[in-house]
Inverse folding.
């Protein structure tokens, strides 16, 4: 099978703790995925809310540099996807794909010109906030919407071809964004609030709006986003959220968004070696065609469309 994962914090862990991407004890390890037919992973540069301004930018540069080093070091099996045609060439080369993303637009430090720098370095998706507030808007633990600067930044991110990621954005900010642009957006690692009432999860109306725009929703493996009763999460919980989104019409929009190395994950999904078993479970419950759309095809087609529109 093939796999396309919209979100992990593994590269941030590699950079901050000086851990290699190959042969490690992290959730994502290149040796573990060598036998997979095809694997594309979005590697997020996570910026905690206490980092603002120049410190946030320097953290981004630190992790982005480590990302480049790991891609170069593992060039025999790994390729960065950053430009039109990269997905096609990935098929021809037989290598796995790596996409650089940012988790929190605090990276901009209130400077629109930084968006061009992000695009130059290959950033393909940007989570607009983390849990708190930044110059663009408010995260899930705060209550304001998009700022005036945020509206400008959103337009420039779209112009530069960087996908807007609404995971962590609060409800008011989400609908402010929907009013600001008709562009497709992603929720890279969010589940269904109707099944688990965590404020980081999507309401049904939000999920339908993302689907209407041809966006993406990545299923998060984090236990608190899968169930609210404190019991260990299982594959069945991932399936329940997937089935709910499918009922809302997200057949062509649903994907994986593990949150590897960035969250409290259940034992059944605490490493990339567990993903093939999840894939088999989803195939058994949903059928091969639908499972393949969730496991890789929807995300692949989405990013292919974004590059074709550049």
């Amino acid at each position: 099978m093939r796999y396309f994962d919209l979100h992990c914090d593994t590269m941030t862990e590699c950079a901050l703790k000086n851990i290699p991407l190959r042969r490690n004890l992290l959730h994502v390890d290149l040796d573990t995925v060598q036998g997979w037919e095809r694997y594309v992973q979005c590697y997020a540069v996570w910026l905690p809310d206490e980092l603002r301004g120049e410190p946030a930018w320097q953290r981004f540069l630190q992790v982005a540099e480590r990302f480049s080093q790991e891609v170069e070091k593992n060039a025999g099996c790994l390729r960065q996807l950053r430009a039109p045609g990269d997905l096609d060439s990935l098929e021809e080369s037989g290598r796995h794909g790596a996409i650089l993303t940012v988790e929190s637009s605090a990276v901009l430090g209130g400077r629109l010109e930084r968006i061009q720098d992000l695009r130059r370095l290959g950033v393909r998706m940007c989570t607009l906030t983390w849990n708190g507030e930044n110059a663009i808007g408010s995260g899930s633990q705060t209550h304001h919407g998009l700022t005036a600067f945020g509206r400008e930044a959103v337009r420039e991110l779209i112009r530069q071809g960087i996908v807007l990621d609404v995971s962590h954005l609060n409800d008011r900010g989400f609908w402010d964004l929907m009013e600001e642009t008709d562009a497709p957006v992603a929720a890279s690692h969010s589940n269904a609030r109707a099944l688990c009432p965590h404020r980081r999860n999507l309401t049904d109306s939000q999920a339908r709006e993302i689907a209407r725009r041809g966006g993406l929703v990545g299923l998060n493996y984090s236990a608190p986003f899968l169930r609210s009763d404190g019991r260990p999460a299982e594959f069945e919980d991932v399936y329940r959220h997937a089935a709910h989104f499918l009922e809302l019409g997200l057949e062509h929009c649903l994907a994986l968004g593990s949150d590897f190395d960035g969250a409290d994950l259940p034992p059944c999904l605490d490493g990339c070696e567990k993903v093939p078993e999840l894939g088999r479970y989803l195939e058994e419950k949903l059928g091969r065609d639908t499972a393949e759309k969730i496991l890789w095809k929807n995300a692949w087609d989405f990013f292919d469309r974004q590059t074709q529109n550049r």
The CA atoms of residues 239 and 282 lie 7 Å apart. The two ends are 29 Å apart (CA to CA). The first helix runs from residue 10 to 17.
